[in-house]
Each structure stands twice: as C-alpha cells, then as structure tokens.
Design goal:
- The structure holds two protein chains of two kinds.
- Chain A is 37% helix and 29% strand.
- Chain A is built from five helices and ten strands, in the order αββββαβαβαββββα.
- In chain A, strands 1-10-9-4-5-6-2-3 form an eight-stranded mixed sheet. A two-stranded antiparallel ribbon of chain A has the order 7-8.
- The model of chain A has no long low-confidence stretch (mean pLDDT 90).
- In chain B, the strands form two sheets. In chain B, strands 1, 2, 4, 5, 7 and 8 form a six-stranded antiparallel sheet that branches.
- The chains are: A alpha+beta, B mainly beta.
- The interface between A and B is large, with 34 and 37 residues.
Chain lengths: 204, 137
C-alpha cells in the first residue's frame, strides 16, 4: 500500500515538474508586451543618403533595433551606436537577416543627412542595413513624444563666437517588432548586449 | 635600444616616476564634429595633482567634461579641473569624465591617432599620443 502511495506521489511530482517546465519555456519564448504601438503611425523621415523613409512603414516585416542619438555627442550616443553595431556584428555572424538597425537623430537642426553619413562613415558602419534617420523638427518632435524619448538642449560652449549646445537626453535602445510595435527598451549606452539579443530573438 | 624605444612608445609620456598617463584613446569623429579622449592618470606620489587643461592642434576647442545622469536622462557638462588623489589612479572613461574635443579640423577614423598635451598643476605638461578606436573593436 505504502509503495503505491509513493509511486502516486512521485507521479504527481513528475507532472508538476513537466507543467512548470512547459510554463517556463513558454514564458522565455513569449514576446514582451507592447510598450509603444507605432503600427498606425507614419513619420516621413530622411536617411543618411537623403532618401525619404516612411517610418515605421518601410520597415514592416523586419524587427528594428532602434537607437536615439545626436551626432555632436562625444560620449553617450557613440556608446549607444557602438552597442547597436556590436549587436549587428554578432547577429550578422549568425546569418540573421530579418533585423534592421536604425539610429534616429533628436537634433534635426544640425544632423543633416551628410552629417549622419559622416557619423557612420568614420565609424566604419556600412549603412546598407544600419540606417541613420533625421527629419523635420516637427516630425522628429512628434516621433520622440510617441516613444517617450526626451532631448532638451542644455549646456553650451562658445566656439569662435558661435554657441554650441549639448543635450540632456534619454539614453535608449528600443526593439520594434515587424508590425511596428516597440516591445523592449534598454539603456542605450550601457545595454547588456546578450540580453538585447535575447529580446531581439523573442521579438523577431 | 630597440627595446627602450618600444617601452617609451608604450608608456607614451611621464612625469619621472610620479605621474603617468596610460591607455589613452579617442573615438572616431567627423570633420567639424566632436569626439572624446579617454585615459588613465596614475599618481604614484604622496601629493595630489590636478589636471588643469588639455591642448591639441586637431580641434578648435579642447575641454574637460563629465557625463552625468539626471533621472533616466544623460547629460554632459564642462569641468574646470580634475583632481588626482595621491597614490591613486584616476580614469577618464566612457560615461564619465572625458576630454571633449570640439570642432575637429579633420575627420578621425579607426587606426588614426592624435597628439594632446595634458597640463597638470604639479607635473606640468605631459604629451600623449592616442590611437582612434571603438569599444569592442
């Protein structure tokens, strides 16, 4: 009798273990919740080659790793861009071809397409699948509001009579799914690239 | 002689045994744009020192800056000097203190290098040659 009870108990433990494993595996592979839904939005932007880009429509079907930068930033924004580049290098090595990489400037007054092209060029970034976008001040303002990215002109330096300004800004890398919904956000300059790749794989 | 020259090139400056600047590097930057210089200052003496200014012919303006956090946001501001405590190493590093190189006269790409003169209150001028690179590359 005792032997049968022990067997039933062991069987129950086994079922509980299997159930928890299934829940755990399902949880790991589940897409993160939507943070910002841009799927119905249509921002007209311009890329580093001066071509018009409809965002996010032109990226439909691709997962997008999205950074927010300004080209005059010497420290934080290059760290963000470099993190995206290193993630791209890693995924390219693995043959992942359904992910696109994008930096959006929150300094459209200074970040013209040629400035952004140079920003990419000096870093050895191939812009075939890593795009640098800018736009009109109003469109950028609207986009930043929709993704809750703040960029406020702050400290200044006077150079030859001209005043150069720097931003205090949100430090962000986002992951947008193929439908245009942002589902994951990281601190851009210090993003854990392994965690970022894990989220990209859940979302793509 | 060759070994001596190699050692000198690796150390790249010095205030005889007291203050050393190590591992200097800077980021790429476009012509007319800004970049940042990073390095470590090792103070082997029992007296404090202060980094007062940095000069270079590669840019219009060179200043010491620090990156700071305000809530979820990041900003950057000029600092007038950087204190180097006795018997310590101070690191200017990404996301922290850095030398802001403003208005590059020419673009700087990976594998280029640039010369800087660091002016310390006690150690005087220390010359540094920094290679251009990116983290993880």
């Amino acid at each position: 009798m005792k032997k049968i009870s022990k067997m039933l108990l062991a069987k129950n433990y086994f079922y509980v273990f299997i159930s928890l494993s299934i829940i755990s595996i399902a949880g790991c592979s589940q897409k993160p919740e939507v943070i910002h839904d841009l799927s119905q939005k249509d921002y007209t932007l311009i890329n580093q080659d001066s071509s018009v880009v409809r965002f996010p429509g032109d990226y439909k079907g691709k997962t997008v790793v999205l950074g927010f930068i300004y080209a005059n930033c010497p420290d934080i924004c290059p760290m963000t861009t470099n993190n995206i580049k290193l993630v791209k290098d890693e995924l390219d090595k693995k043959g992942v071809n359904d992910v696109t990489y994008v930096d959006i400037s929150f300094d459209p007054e200074r970040d013209s397409p040629s400035v952004l092209k140079q920003f990419a060029d000096v870093r050895g970034i191939n812009t075939d699948n890593f795009h640098f976008l800018t736009g009109s001040k109003d469109v950028i303002k609207s986009l930043l509001k929709d993704v809750n990215v703040l960029a406020i002109p702050g400290d200044t330096t006077v150079i030859g009579g001209d005043t150069a300004y720097y931003f205090i800004h949100t430090d962000r890398i986002s992951v947008m799914d193929p439908e245009g919904k942002i589902r994951s956000e990281f601190k851009g300059s210090t993003a854990n690239r392994e965690e970022l790749i894990k989220d990209i794989n859940k979302i793509r | 002689m060759y070994i001596f020259l190699v050692l000198v090139s690796l150390i790249n400056f010095s205030y005889p045994g007291k203050l050393e600047v190590k591992d200097a590097w800077l980021r790429p930057g476009g012509k007319g744009m800004n970049t940042a210089l990073y390095f470590k200052v090792e103070n082997k003496s029992d007296k404090p020192d202060t980094l007062l200014s940095v000069k270079s012919s590669i840019a219009d303006v060179v200043q010491t800056h620090e990156t700071y956090k305000k809530g979820d946001m990041m900003g950057m501001r000029k600092v007038n000097a950087i204190a180097i405590e006795p018997n310590s190493t101070f690191e200017l590093k990404p996301g922290g203190f850095h030398v802001m190189v403003i208005g590059l006269k020419e673009a700087l790409r990976k594998n280029d290098s640039a010369k800087f003169t660091l002016h310390f209150k006690n150690a005087g001028d220390i010359n540094v040659k920094a290679p251009v690179k990116m983290e993880g590359n």
